[in-house]
Structure formats: C-alpha cells, structure tokens
Amino acid sequence: MAIWLTENSKIIVQGMTGGEGTKHTRRMLASGARVVGGVNARKAGTTHEGLPVFGTVKEAIEKTRADVSVVFVPPAFTKDAVKEAIDAEIPLCVVITEGVPVHDSTEFWAYAVSKGNKTRIIGPNCPGIASPGASNAGIIPADITTAGRIGLVSKSGTLTYQLMYELRDFGFSTAVGIGGDPVIGTTHIDALQAFQEDPGTDAIVMIGEIGGDAEERAAAYIEQYVTKPVVAYVAGFTAPEGKTMGHAGAIVSGSAGTAQAKKEALEKVGVRVGKTPSETARLMREVMQSR
What we know:
Rossmann fold, 2 domains, 7-stranded mixed sheet
C-alpha cells in the first residue's frame, strides 16, 4: 500500500519539454513510473521523449486519464500552471519549482480551496512524492531505498533522501517531500493522517525544521489522532536567531520556532526525536525491530 501515489497513477508533466522537465521525465520513466504525457501550449501536438505533448492539462487528462501532474515550470508561470491543473480537477499536483513567490503560492492554495479541494497540492519547492517499487512523481532518486512499511514526511529534500537511504533495509510505503516554503499545499498533518489510515504503513518518520509552528501543530495532532509510532528530526539546532536558513520558512524569531521548542513539543506527546539524521534513523530502526 501507499498514500496518494500508486503503481496505477498516471503522470503528466507540466513543463516536460524544458531542461529540468526533460531530465526528470527520463528519470521517472526509468524508475517505472507511468508518465503518459506532457503539457506545453506552444508545442501541443508534438512528441517529446516518446510521449505526446498536449496544449492543456484538461486535454491531457481527457486523452490519457492522468491523475497526477508534476510541475516543472519557471517561477513566474507556476501560479498559472497550478491553477490550470486545479481547473482540470486533477487529483494530485506536485509542484517542484523553487522560488515561487509566497503571494503566488497563497493564491493558488486559496484557489484550490475555493474549488472544493479536489486537487491535492504538494509543494512548491519540494522533491515530490515516491512510493518505492510503485511510482515516483518528482525528483526523489528511485534507487536509494526499497519498498517497505515506513512512511516519511519531510520539509527537506536532502534529508528525505538521507533517511530513505539509511533505512533502505526496512523500506518505505511512501515518502512525501512537502517543501519548506512559508505556504505549502500539503502539511505534516495531512501526511500523518494519511499514513495513520494506510494499512501498509507501520511507523512514521517526520522531518521538520526551524521556523513557524508546523511541528508543534503536528505534535498536537499526533497526541489526539496518531496511534502508530512516530520518530522525528528537527533541522536547525545550531541556526542563529533571525537568519533565514535554507528554506524561506526556516527562520527563528525569539523563542518561537526553535529546534529545541519543537523537539520538546514532540517528545511531550511520545514522539522520539533524534538530534541528528543518523540518530533518527537509529531510533526508527529500533521501532521496526521491536515490531
């Protein structure tokens, strides 16, 4: 089992004909993902990487029955691309693009809500979602782990890859990189809920980082609704106050949003928190070995 992305998912790529879109379309195809076409209004009716290019997301869905879109569109055009996917009511839209203005992210997130939340947005500025052995939508390497029964949700792309690799002998049901921007479509809580309900997931790794209160809100959700074991890591224990670190959302102001405060909130509800990624992997290994 997996969440949101399965072996039956049919993927289209908005921006497939660009450099990044081409590279990662090839990688997704090589991993066995069912990529069925691309979208580029200027190149509609042509083929690229052996796949048809459509003028609109709506046309792509009508012709291929696609249910996932991966967006590799420059930041200036990302808002319109995502809104087009929402209008077409594609169930899952994975926004890889980095540097999307927060105002634009806010606008397309609100637009999705206004349209009845028929489209789940993951990202922006994220590595995507991978269900090892089943499908891969985004830029997560397909060969660093195996299929298994750990669910992973992470703000950080590189830490997603590290935990997937370190726990490759146990494997993952699905790994979701939600992105670290201040406004994102899918949150830790969304993924926690889905993993809690997924019979193919036995335990959950949650990776957070300094800034905001997403991890504290996730801790409150875990306390009330999650019965599966959760192990967490919070990046940024050594970050200086007031400095943006890596992601646009990773900034500490006063005592709010510190790694220590997040660690304490999570541990208070029974989540084991590692001080390093490798310690986090060791904690999850202990959880899985005890089951």
